[in-house]
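Practice problem: predict the structure.
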Amino acid sequence: MSQPVTCRVFREELFRFQSDEMSEGDRAVLQEHLNLCEDCAGLLELTDRLLASVKEALPREPAPAGLESRIRSALADVHTEAAGGQVVPLRRSWWKDPVVAAMAAVFLLAALITPVLMNRDIVPEPAVFTGTIVDFECDQAGLPLEMQRNCRARDHLNALKLDEGDYVHFNIHQTGYRNLVSDLDVRGRRVTVHGNLHPEIRTLEIIGVEELSGRL
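Answer:
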């Protein structure tokens, strides 16, 4: 690697580093930077955990060629896009911020699900669901809603839990509904959600939301 390894260089090379798409010499140089930089080590951990979490929630079918590389590249660009297209120095450990991490999770989920939907012969079905918004991971673990509202795990996303116990995941393209996926304060709220359901992956494209009551 001809240029010195800075945080910017590491972010640009992150998905190649994780995918073993570089020479042993270049990998060793990046690993040396990784051993000394808390910010980049945290970014690596975050992308690994988010990718593993979303992959586990999807059907066990082959993904389109090159999908994982596109996801990692898109996630690496989140910080750049948030700065208005300019790469800025990381003055603090931004990956520890639950708000930023939640937004990264939303971008990752959208990047993963959208190509899958476009490349599969799935016809969405109009659907209406009534249920409670929960932290999907915490709820599956049996944690009460009060604990779910306080959970700041960076790789946890919200889902709609139906009265019979099933879950519906949100496919968020509209900015106005993104809070349903990432916000802590919506957990425990009863809502009726209208949209188009992709049944094979239990994912709903939201058209409208009606809140039935406050928190439970």
